[in-house]
C-alpha cells in the first residue's frame, strides 16, 4: 500500500517540479527577481519532499506540506497583483523586480499574437539603456497568462498538501503498528539452538 502511495506521490512531485522549472525559465527571461527567488526556494523544498517520500521520512514531507501553505499565499498575492486588486498595481517595479529594473513579464512582449512596435523618439523620462515600445494585437493579455500560471501552482499545491497529509498519516500508522508488534530484532532472527547432551569426561591414562 505504501509503495503504491509513494509512487503516486513521487509522480505528482515530478509534475510539480517540471511546472516550476517552466515558470522559472520565463521569470528569468522577464527579470522578475522576486518570483525567481520564490521559485528557487520552491524547487529546493520539492527536492526535499522527493527525498522524504523515497526514504519514507514523514518530517520532510510535513515540512513540504507546511511550505505549500506559504506557496499558495504567494501565488494568491501574484494573482491579486496582476489583477490589480485593492491598491496593487502591476506597473509597480519594486514588488517583482526589487526596483532593480523596469522589466515586466516576459509574456508582455511575447504573448500569443502580440505585435511589438518601437516608439521613436523615446520619451525624455525613458532610460537610455531601455527601448520604448508599444504592444498590440495580443490574443491574451500577459497578466492573464501570469494568473493562469499562478492558478496552476495553487491547484498543484492544494492537491500536494492533501496528498502529503495522507502519506504522512499512512507512514505514521505503519510505524505505530510496527512498534506494536515489536519491530525487528536488532540482532536478527535466531532460530532455536540445539544443545548437545554429550558431556566430555576426563580421561585417565594408566602407566
From TrEMBL:
Protein name listed in UniProt: Sodium/potassium-transporting ATPase subunit beta-1-interacting protein
Compartments where located: Cell membrane
Top-rank lineage group of the source organism: Eukaryota
Membrane topology: Multi-pass membrane protein
Entry's family note: Belongs to the NKAIN family.
Keywords linked to the UniProt accession: Cell membrane, Membrane, Transmembrane, Transmembrane helix
One GO location term (cellular component): plasma membrane
Organism encoding this protein: Patagioenas fasciata monilis
InterPro entries the UniProt entry points to: Na/K-Atpase_Interacting
Coiled coil: none
Transmembrane region(s): 33-52, 64-85, 150-168
GO BP terms, alphabetized: regulation of sodium ion transport
Amino acid at each position: 500500500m505504501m509503495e503504491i502511495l509513494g509512487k503516486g506521490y513521487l509522480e505528482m512531485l515530478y509534475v510539480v517540479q517540471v511546472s516550476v522549472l517552466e515558470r522559472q525559465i520565463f521569470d528569468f527571461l522577464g527579470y522578475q527577481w522576486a518570483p525567481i527567488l520564490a521559485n528557487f526556494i520552491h524547487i529546493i523544498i520539492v527536492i526535499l519532499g522527493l527525498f522524504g517520500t523515497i526514504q519514507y521520512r514523514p518530517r520532510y514531507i510535513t515540512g513540504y506540506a507546511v511550505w505549500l501553505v506559504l506557496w499558495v499565499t504567494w501565488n494568491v498575492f501574484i494573482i491579486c497583483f496582476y489583477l490589480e486588486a485593492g491598491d496593487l498595481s502591476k506597473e509597480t517595479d519594486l514588488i517583482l523586480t526589487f526596483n532593480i529594473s523596469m522589466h515586466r513579464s516576459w509574456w508582455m512582449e511575447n504573448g500569443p499574437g502580440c505585435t511589438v512596435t518601437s516608439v521613436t523618439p523615446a520619451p525624455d523620462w525613458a532610460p537610455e539603456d531601455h527601448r520604448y515600445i508599444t504592444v498590440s494585437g495580443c490574443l491574451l493579455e500577459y497578466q492573464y497568462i501570469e494568473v493562469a500560471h499562478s492558478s496552476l501552482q495553487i491547484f498543484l499545491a492544494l492537491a500536494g498538501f492533501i496528498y502529503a497529509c495522507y502519506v504522512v498519516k499512512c507512514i505514521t500508522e505503519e510505524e505505530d503498528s510496527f512498534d506494536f508488534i515489536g519491530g525487528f530484532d536488532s540482532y536478527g532472527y535466531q532460530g532455536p539452538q540445539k544443545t548437545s547432551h554429550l558431556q566430555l569426561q576426563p580421561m585417565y591414562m594408566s602407566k
